[in-house]
Amino acid sequence: MKKSVLVSSLSLVLATTTVLSTAGAATKTDTIVIRHTQLGEAKQQRLNILKDVLARVSKEVPGVKYKLDGVDSDVNRKEKLRSEMVVNKAPAIFDLFGGTDTQLYVEANRLLDLTPILKELGLSNKFISLDEFKVNGKVYGLPIGGYQEGYFYNKDYFKAHNLSVPKTLSELESLAATIKKDGKTPFAQASKAAWVPLMTANTLWSRYAGPDITNGFTTGKTKWNSTQMVAAFTKYQDWVKKGYFKQGELGLDYAEQRNQLIRGEAIMMYDGSWASSVFSDPKQAGSLTNKVGYFALPSVSGGKGSQTAVNGGFSNGYGFSSKVKNNKQQYAFVKSFIKNMYNDEMQIRGLEADGVLPSMKVSSSKLANAKVSGLVKEIIEVGNKASGAFPAFDSLVQPDVNTALSEGIQKLIAGKTTPKAMLDAVQKAQNAANSNEDF
Amino acid sequence: MNKTLRNPWTYVLFLLPLLVLYIMFFVYPMISAFTTGFMKWNGLTEPHFNGLTNFKHAFNDDKFWQSVFNNGKFILFSVFVQVPIIIFFSLLISNVKKLRGLYKTAVFVPSVMSTAVIGILWSFIYEPDIGLFNLILTRIGLQPVMWLSDSHWAMFSILLTNAWQWTGFYIVMVLAAILSIPREIDEAAIVDGASAFKRATKITVPLIMPVISVVIMLSIAGAMKAADIIIVMTDGGPGGITDVMATYLIKYGITNAKYGYGNSIGVLIFLFSLILTALYQVLFARRVERVEY
């Protein structure tokens, strides 16, 4: 074969493949990654909702394929997403917490400004509160639902032992003493992850020191080691010393606290409203199905501020990568995702199937007709009776302070520190974080 | 062909892929860690040079020293508890005539299992109420132990699990060394009337010292990079009591969004490992004679 023939045929092959690959690229389908935290049996319903939403989105935006990426909530929030944000490789759609997390990512321009999309879809005024996802008046995340924290309790046990829902903290304590005397654990708890015991502590300190105290820590207006805060943590330690929690609970995973209640080993459990769906599912709750009640942490005599405010808010939802803006198809996908995920139908479905409180202003008639369990009705009733809500501390304080507090509460439960020493250490971390220390 | 092999650039070309990978995954991250270790950087916004502040903070932080101390516990447990057990079991298995393969496989299996699986498996064993250990303790009339939540026991529980995972791997290494010793040496000792204990301590162990030295070195390296087993079993808790340097790095570097500080801890882990390795080489490894039979 002549050299010139060989060269020209090879050139032809090269040119053809180049043209073909370019043509392929033009019709290439994008793959979008959706990071969710709906893992395990307890979150199956929520995952089903997500899948149904994505099926609708796929029909509306056919050129984009999607891939689900499920990660444990705590791991995603504290490690995986944070590392991805550093290298600017976050998925297009991801589970996001409001407050300090959102602020941090907005500062680095990693989050998509959703304000124009909300305006375009007519959703700007449809949410109950977007405060935790707002930075400088712009919206960077959308809460999937609301939450509220309180005590879940074994109704049958209460009835059998002639116990009633406590109205004051001293009534709660005498209830706990009675249960303990009966050989049961008063409060189910599993504190391997520190945020679990900190749920109780957060509301307890808000009763003693006022629901607004946490807002002042970052500005220096209020102090962690103030007298009321020490009183709240002293009460907490008192419960530990009296054996109101299971021995060895510091080594147990979060899911184990529900099991303590379900097994009948413990009678009350402080948890978020997201846990409610477990108690209407016979597969998970067994004989305790639909036999669980709910009440708020009762008032503290001499406590500061509102004594009926609940720990609740709209802090968890979806955020979107700022990179999406540069890709028309992905941007269309995100828009369609918001449209299909955030509407009355999905909000009611979340409430009915999973007990997730709506984060949107759903019409009252639809809400009244929603088929919800008795437990969810009780949760909504507690929320309606509350004077207001305060967000969880971890959406208000810096990560360093959260770490110091997390270590502190575990040491307190282990009997390795005193409330005052623990809170002094947290205040030290708070001072360092507020002063924007140089490391 | 010969002409090609005589050209030094050929060898450079052969080495190139490996060199590229080495630079990408070792040299570049190391340089990057060293430079950002001297910066205040949250990983998201612009970093700025802060001199030795990160290192000063680490040296003044009790929690950092607690984690260094825990790495020390890992090393001491490996060298003074795990290695003697490895030698003991290797000697036992080497003297077994039947089913030696089965024993070798049985002890080796844990080392091929994922650390996450092992961590969860042992968490069941340590469970306060229905865990195997507490069931045994209560059966014999003793008080149950809160293995993973009691600050006195949590670290020990992790060390035990870690030892269980890796002992088999090292046993197979030591066993191979024992079995490579010519039988004549042992037979001569038997003819001279040496007891089994004497043969083990005076002949076998001295002859396999180079391998034991490698086992110790690998144990030290493993102890310095321990993290996964702790994350799965206690996540550094309760109250940071089981944190080692690597988990301290994750907690205070990544979780707290202080990547500059996290990198400075990475540099310190590197330096500590370097010092330990050098010390071990100078004080022990070089004195081990290479035995030729």
From TrEMBL, chain A:
Keyword Signal: yes
SUPFAM superfamilies: Periplasmic binding protein-like II (SSF53850)
Protein species of origin: Paenibacillus taihuensis
Protein name: Carbohydrate ABC transporter substrate-binding protein (CUT1 family)
Signal peptide start and end residues: 1-25
Keywords assigned: Signal
From TrEMBL, chain B:
The entry's keywords: Cell membrane, Membrane, Transmembrane, Transmembrane helix, Transport
Pfam families: BPD_transp_1
Protein's GO biological process: transmembrane transport
Record's GO cellular component terms: plasma membrane
Name of the protein in question: Carbohydrate ABC transporter membrane protein 1 (CUT1 family)
Organism: Paenibacillus taihuensis
Family in the record: Belongs to the binding-protein-dependent transport system permease family.
Residues spanning the membrane: 12-31, 74-93, 105-125, 163-182, 203-224, 265-285
Topology within the bilayer: Multi-pass membrane protein
InterPro entries linked: ABC_transporter_permease, MetI-like, MetI-like_sf
Main location: membrane
Subcellular location: Cell membrane
All residue ranges annotated as the ABC transmembrane type-1 domain in the record: 68-280
